[in-house]
Amino acid sequence: MIEVISGNRCIECDICVKVCPANVFDKTGGVPVIARQDDCQTCFLCEIYCPTDALYVAEHADGPIAITEAEIEQRDLFGSYSRALGWKRGKAGGTQFDPTHRIRVAQV
Fold first, then answer.
1. Which of 17, 21, 30, 87 could make an SS bond with 25 (beta carbons 3.0 to 4.6 A apart)?
2. In the chain, what are the domain boundaries?
3. Is the pTM of this model over 0.70?
4. What pLDDT, on a 0 to 100 scale, did the predictor assign at position 63?
5. What is the mean pLDDT of residues 17-25?
């Protein structure tokens, strides 16, 4: 379930709002808000597409786990799902490859 959007990391691109199939987020003109957390399907799309690893989705789909942004930072959990898949930020052909790069760039 979506747990945290980091206000320090977020660049207010609203990509998470656009890719969420459950319409969990609301645009605010700033950092999006998690408006319907209970609707989160734990699909990790928001975390994967976030260009700055500003979101943390816990693998537990049955409810929030009450984790803080500070704890997520300390445990290096921002972007952990993408890293677990072996995805890196950057364009294909460079030193890093992110399969979602073209989609994320087109979303902006």
1. 17
2. 2-107
3. yes
4. 76
5. 96
